[in-house]
Specification:
Elements (H helix, E strand, L loop, with lengths): L6 H5 L6 E6 L6 H19 L6 H4 L2 E5 L1 H10 L4 H15 L16 H12 L12 E8 L4 E6 L24 H8 L9 E6 L8 E7 L9 H9 L14 E6 L6 H5 L7 H27 L27 E5 L5 H8 L5 H7 L8 H12 L19
Parallel strand pairs: 1-2, 1-7, 2-3, 7-8
Antiparallel strand pairs: 3-4, 3-6, 5-6
Helix pairs in contact: 2-5, 2-13, 4-7, 5-6, 6-7
Length: 394
């Protein structure tokens, strides 16, 4: 049986190359991402001659926001892509059940309790400090009561992971239940109620202090790739990996880029409330575009990069003398031009409007088919063999 790096070895800041996998948020459109992951898993199994290889054996850190957090958590525990898809379909059909009584602006569209129960069923009661992680995990959530973005990891060296003797009431991150951390990252406003996580324990005469968390997509990191790069290389996060194109590989997988024209053409687009929602959705897309811009600008040229806009184009050459990482991005784009040019398909406005919705379980099969089309862009050379060093133990 093949022997791969241990959890500790995955996180260690040694002299070996490091590999990061980043997974966007996007509701049930995450089914698209799953198909790209299946392609990556298949290529790696073929390369290493091991039909049982998991993505957790290859990648040293797996980052996810919202639906990407669900997938990332499962992968970091050593699940196969087939197992992830099975859980994903079950979650989608169980959680996104439409109800007449949950229409309107006064109630969230779906039952957050059902989400928590479903996630607990997948991940159990283990915490961020559990001992069955196979590799590093990063989950992005937004703490609404402080306005701060939380990049929660399973790194034992991170600042808030262990108990703090100077602040004994503070609950260390390692004690946060994994299912609850993932639930916090998926708490999309209007879809699900926020998640409360106990941050400080009670003392005599004082209550617990809870953090009030919503979907990580409400931060600048619905695409968590830039946050993953910062987490891996900034001293404060205590990973301390080396940023260099031959030492750091980052693979980023999207859930489909929404087409704002589809929403603005809606008969409701003239309503003030609708315009507010559309502006927030556009802000999320703007943040994701900025993440792609920065990563293209910091990395070696890749045939997976896209023109960010007509003036900027592709964001190369790399900023500074040397690229800081090798970076590849896989995604779909919900425009007629992209479907025509990339897939040779003619699609209708109705198709685009339906497919870019995030809460339709009836779209899962179609999203899986689209994901297989996107996965054809994944090439063996996108995972340079120089990054195979250290994957297997001698």
């Amino acid at each position: 049986m093949a022997s791969y790096r241990t959890f500790k070895q995955h996180l260690d800041a040694d002299d070996l190359p490091k590999r990061i996998l980043s997974l966007d948020g996007g509701g049930l459109r995450g089914m698209l991402s799953v198909q790209v992951l299946r392609r990556l898993e298949g290529l790696l199994r073929e390369r290493f001659g091991d039909k049982d290889l998991r993505l957790s054996d290859y990648f040293d850190l797996i980052a996810g926001t919202s639906t990407g957090a669900i997938i990332a958590a499962g992968l970091s525990l050593g699940m196969t892509v087939d197992q992830i898809e099975e859980h994903y379909r079950n979650l989608g059909n169980k959680v996104f059940m439409r109800s007449f009584w949950r229409r309107g602006l006064l109630r969230d569209s779906y039952d957050a309790t059902a989400v928590g129960e479903a996630l607990r069923g997948v991940f159990g009661d283990g915490t961020l400090g559990r001992d069955d992680f196979r590799t590093g995990l990063l989950v992005v959530a937004k703490r609404l009561d402080t306005g701060s973005t939380w990049a929660l990891t399973n790194n034992p060296r991170s600042r808030y992971f262990p108990p703090n003797p100077d602040r004994p009431r503070t609950i260390p991150n390692r004690e946060y239940p994994l299912w609850q951390v993932v639930r916090a990252s998926t708490a999309a406003p209007t879809f699900f109620a926020p998640e409360r996580i106990s941050i400080q324990s009670a003392v005599e005469g004082r209550d617990d202090v809870d953090g009030f968390f919503v979907d990580g997509g409400c931060s600048p990191h619905n695409n968590p790739a830039l946050q993953a790069l910062m987490t891996a290389t900034m001293e404060g996060y205590k990973f301390n990996w080396t940023a260099r194109s031959d030492r750091l590989l980052l693979v980023s997988v999207g859930t489909g880029k929404a087409n704002p024209a589809v929403d603005t053409d809606s008969k409701f687009a003239g309503l003030a409330a609708a315009q507010g929602v559309l502006a927030l959705k556009n802000l999320m897309e703007d943040c994701s575009d900025l993440v792609e811009t920065m990563l293209q600008w910091l990395s070696s040229p890749s045939d997976t990069s896209r023109a960010i806009d007509r003036e900027m184009g592709h964001c190369n050459p790399a900023l500074g003398k040397d690229a800081l990482l090798t970076y590849h991005r896989y995604n779909a784009y919900f425009t007629k031009d992209w479907f025509k040019q990339a897939l040779g398909r003619e699609v209708t406005d109705d198709y685009l409007e339906t497919m870019q919705e995030m809460d339709r379980p009836e779209n899962l099969d179609a999203l899986a088919g689209l994901g297989k089309d996107v996965a054809r862009a994944v090439k063996d050379e996108h995972l340079p063999k120089a990054f195979d060093v250290g994957v297997r133990m001698p």
